[in-house]
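Model: You mentioned two targets. I'll fold them one after the other.
Researcher: Yes, keep them separate.
Model: Target one:
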Amino acid sequence: MKKIIHSDDAPKAVGPYSQAVRTGNLLFTAGQVPLDPATGKLVEGDIKAQAEQAMKNLQAVLAAAGTSFEHVVKTTVYLADIADYVGMNEVYGRYITTDFPARSAFAVRDLPLGAKVEIEMIVEIPEAG
């Protein structure tokens, strides 16, 4: 059964999609760009500042679903410039510290709202108990 997940601590969807969808014990997040949930505006700054906000947004969505970064099984990272890979990876590595998930990262032509990074995840939701 499909369940829509929403966190007020992450940006509202800017289109006809959900922040995340749970089915069974898996959570599929929408791609998170570095929007400040309080203002709805793109965080200004370099790739590190933008990756930090994207990861904070994901952290809020995962928490709303009852899971965390330690349960991520797959991450996809989209970069506006592949030269930003090292900076993004530095920030990502502060959030994902053990039991590393599978990951793909690549450059794309453009990202929504002119963002430098967008990150999406597939995450396991641990059984309660």
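Model: Target two:
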Amino acid sequence: MTGGRKVDRELRLRLTEIFVSLQGESTRIGLPTVFVRLTGCPLRCTWCDTTYAFEGGEYRSIGEILDAVTATGIDTVCVTGGEPLAQAGCQVLLAALCDAGLSVSLETSGALDVSGVDPRVARIIDIKPPGSGEVARNRWQNLEQLRPGDELKFVLVDENDYIWSRTRIDADDLAGRCTILMSPVHGRLDPARLAEWILRDRLPVRMQLQMHKLIWGDQPGR
């Protein structure tokens, strides 16, 4: 049941892949996780590492997705993309996964409205700095929807991105509202430099590296 209604198990979503890996980011880092990667994204970030999810995919019903997820025996699930919220049925899928007793997180670009996401879902919301090429797509109204269990993620290309992000964090008191994640673009910004800036400014954020890339490199499905 979802919101008192029976879930439409036949509702279909365009799916790129379902795979099991270690969560490489967020406060769930290191946890064995089932990833449900939906197809399609309206953004084109300069550093995107999942361009293969922009197109293609195959339509699968929510029932088929639920069956595939539960068959793994893992109860931590991350719905990602692409941009999962670009598909209207994503909201139904998220609620259905929660109804199945799973611990669910959503990775979203921050360009689309998150207010309708089931409150049981941990929302990992990107804020796009200038170096992403998509700063104009930030949906600032999402900040009004933040809950303590949410996480904001800043992915940085250079020091300009860092300064822009620091200014935004301070201006909106974001660290007082939810967990703030900050990470360097893999292969473009030296993690040691980012660490130095954070320590220098006593910035109340959690620095992260993409653990899955440190282990497996750029292999798809990892």
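Researcher: Noted. Anything on target two?
Model: The chain has one domain: 12-216.
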